[in-house]
Amino acid sequence: MKGSRDDALKRRLKEMIIAECDKDVTPDEIPDDAPLFGEDAVLELDSLDGLQISMAVQKEYGYRISDPKEMRRILASVNSLADFLQPE
Q1: CB 5 within 8 Å of CB 73
Q2: Is residue 38 over pLDDT 90?
Q3: How much helix, strand and coil, in percent to the nearest 5, is found in the chain?
Q4: Which residue pairs, CB below 8 angstroms and at least 24 apart, start in 48-55?
Q5: Taking residues 39-43, what's their average pLDDT?
């Protein structure tokens, strides 16, 4: 199943993002397709948050994201991160 269709995976990712970035929101407050970074983002994450998330992804899922351009694309939304982790 493609990651963006896996509600359990997306919930775990939201919980991980909240914990790693020390945000005071619930997973239900983070839309699956909303941007994670920038002024329009619910969480208003910055580059340090991105680094923390990428380190957590490496620890939890074994995927290392080292290219900054690739990281921006992968961490664009919860859906894009889920699809990266579970493409099919």
Answers
A1: no
A2: no
A3: 60, 0, 40
A4: 49/20, 49/21, 50/75, 52/20, 52/21, 53/16, 53/17, 53/20, 53/21, 53/81, 55/20
A5: 85
Rounded to two decimals, what is the model's pTM?
0.92
> Which CATH number does 3-85 carry?
1.10.1200.10
Domain boundary assignment for the chain: 3-85
pLDDT class for 79, splitting at 50, 70, 90? very high
Structure tokens at 40: 């329009």
| Section 57-82 average pLDDT | 93
Euclidean distance between CA atoms 44 and 81, whole angstroms: 17
